[in-house]
Amino acid sequence: MDSQFDSNPLSRIPLKVVVIIHFVLTIWAGQVGFLPVAYQFMNLSILFCGCWAIAQSESVDSIQMYLIVQVISILMDIIFLGIFFDSADGYYHRSALNFSKAMAIINLLLKPISCFIILVHYRNRGGQYSSYPSPSASGYENVDQPLPSNNPVESANSPSSFQKPYTPH
Predict the structure, then answer these.
(1) CA end-to-end distance (rounded Å), the chain
(2) Which residues contact 15 (CB under 8 A, 6 or more apart)?
(3) Contact at 8 Å (CB) between 8 and 32?
(4) How many C-beta neighbours within 10 Å does residue 31 have?
(5) Which of the ends of the chain has fewer CB neighbours closer than 10 A, N or C?
(6) With b meaning 16 or more CB within 10 Å and e meaning fewer, what string describes 122-145?
(7) What is the pTM of this model?
(8) Tens digits of per-residue pLDDT, 22-46?
């Protein structure tokens, strides 16, 4: 593990805090309903991945999935807010609508910080930035070249005489 991740003060923030904060902000952002159902579904799916990462505290896969969906949700939130931000004016009570919009924006602004916290936890669990070897990695093999071998391959000897197969009478 890298010492920069171990000494980071964000590593002391538990994942439970991140999940609870986003849960509350998602509920507050969706209370008026100016955002589509896809916004609620996306954020509840993220919260599910967060609960999975909390429950599987040693699993690298669960926290990796949580990080991936959290990063994707930043782009999706920008799209949702860009499309639907002004679409609900006049339908709902003005103060409730403004509160809901503010909570959606705060939720979006906190997601990059949450991603960094999740990344720190991911690194502390032993996760790597890339699980695929690069061409310069030591484990890379060129498939066009034959593998070097210390043991010579024994060739099969052809039979010197042909025997007729057994045929029952």
Answers:
(1) 74
(2) 50, 53, 54, 63, 66, 117, 118, 121
(3) no
(4) 14
(5) C
(6) bbebebeeeeeeeeeeeeeeeeee
(7) 0.67
(8) 999 999 998 887 888 899 999 999 9
